[in-house]
């Protein structure tokens, strides 16, 4: 049977442990969270030394795993066998026969990370029919922006501003473990109740005096005075990583503005694009001020993304590249 992360978490918290689990997919966070919970809660501390085995796929085989799973518990209710990085397990097909009649007193966990198991294989079909299967798929950015605030509140007791989350995702991507690590860095003193954009900026390294979204807003509003102020700030502090981050934010913003403008031309509902109202208000400004030139804006940003990586531009300071890019765009 297939099950979601949320449902499986609730099952485990209620003390329900199944004989066989397949946890697989590209998003490692959910796999690690479930694996860690079973490792820490399926047995008490005294039972673990006798009845729990944690191994890695590269160090064992399917036959060895079956032999471990078929052992009966000593002085306890169950045996726990956890196979981390099960994608490296040799002779995985031998699990097929075991999956048809798993030992009721055993909890066997196959943590298949970094990629989903091939659903056309016999072993996957057998596990889907006989095991508890959780697919851990990576989230798109708009899905993550909807899901992450509630998760952060529940797991860390923190709320987060929409702008702070946008910036965090732009710089760290959508891998959940990276986002959690950054949140832990931001709140290293454990004294925050709400994550604001200034906290993220300080952790990334922009400093207290600069709001990274000033670039985006200045371009959207064609505000040359503000752009000059931003450039002067960066002439003294800018690093290559800052430029790459700003380019990433600008590309996301203007590509979304372009997508919304196309949707409006086709009379398609903007809500179908998964964009929240806070972001939509910002996009409308860019659409109003650039219109059909949005595609040219994207071409310029792509050009300077390559230059920021040293392609087509050698020994040019990051601040100079930023200045060139901003004024090419604002003067369209």
What are the SSEs and their pairings?
Blueprint lengths: L4 H9 L6 E6 L2 H14 L3 H7 E5 L5 H8 L9 E6 L10 H6 L5 E8 L8 H9 L1 E4 L5 H16 L2 E2 L1 H11 L3 H11 L7 E2 L1 H8 L8 H8 L3 H14 L2 H26 L11 H14 L3 H15 L9 H13 L2
Parallel strand pairs: 1-4, 1-5, 2-3, 3-4, 6-7
Helix pairs in contact: 1-2, 8-10, 9-10, 11-12, 12-16, 13-14, 13-15, 15-16
Describe this entry's structure for a reader.
This protein is α/β, with parallel strands linked by helices and 332 residues long. It folds into 3 domains: 5-135, P-loop containing nucleotide triphosphate hydrolases (Rossmann fold), CATH 3.40.50; 141-159 and 167-203, no CATH class; 213-330, Zinc Finger, Delta Prime, domain 3 (Up-down Bundle). It contains 16 helices and 7 strands. Strands 2-3-4-1-5 form a 5-stranded parallel sheet, with helices on both faces. The chain has a two-stranded parallel ribbon with strand order 6-7. Helix 4 links the parallel strand 2 and strand 3. Helix 12 runs antiparallel to helix 16. The radius of gyration is 25 Å and the shape is elongated. It starts with a helix and ends with a helix. The model has no long low-confidence stretch (mean pLDDT 88).
């Amino acid at each position: 049977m297939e099950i979601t992360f949320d449902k499986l978490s609730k099952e485990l918290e209620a003390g329900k442990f199944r004989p066989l689990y397949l946890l697989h997919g590209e998003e490692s966070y959910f796999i690690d969270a479930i694996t860690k919970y079973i490792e820490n809660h399926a047995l008490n501390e005294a039972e673990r030394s006798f009845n729990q085995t944690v191994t890695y796929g590269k160090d064992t085989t399917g036959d060895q795993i079956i032999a471990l799973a078929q052992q009966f518990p000593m002085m306890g209710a169950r045996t726990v066998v956890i196979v981390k990085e099960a994608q490296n397990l040799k002779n995985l097909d031998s699990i097929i026969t075991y999956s048809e009649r798993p030992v009721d007193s055993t909890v066997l966990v196959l943590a298949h990370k970094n990629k989903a198991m091939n659903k056309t294989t016999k072993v996957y079909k057998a596990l889907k029919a006989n095991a508890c299967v959780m697919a851990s798929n990576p989230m798109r950015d708009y899905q993550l922006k909807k899901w992450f605030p509630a998760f952060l509140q529940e797991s860390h007791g923190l709320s987060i501003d929409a702008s702070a989350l946008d910036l965090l995702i732009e710089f760290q991507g959508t891998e959940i473990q990276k986002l959690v690590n950054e949140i832990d860095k931001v709140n290293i003193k454990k004294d925050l109740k709400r994550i604001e954009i200034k906290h993220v900026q300080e952790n990334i390294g922009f400093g207290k005096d600069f709001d990274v979204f000033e670039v985006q807003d200045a371009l959207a509003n064609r505000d040359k005075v503000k752009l000059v102020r931003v450039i002067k700030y960066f002439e003294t502090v800018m690093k290559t990583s800052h430029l790459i981050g700003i380019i990433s934010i600008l590309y996301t913003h203007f590509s979304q503005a372009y997508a919304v403008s196309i949707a409006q031309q086709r009379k398609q509902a903007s809500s179908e694009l998964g964009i929240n109202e806070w972001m939509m208000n910002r996009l409308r400004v860019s659409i109003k001020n650039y219109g059909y030139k949005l595609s040219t804006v994207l071409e310029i940003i792509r050009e300077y993304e390559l230059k920021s990586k040293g392609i087509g531009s050698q020994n040019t300071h990051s601040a100079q590249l930023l200045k060139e890019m901003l004024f090419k765009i604002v003067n369209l």
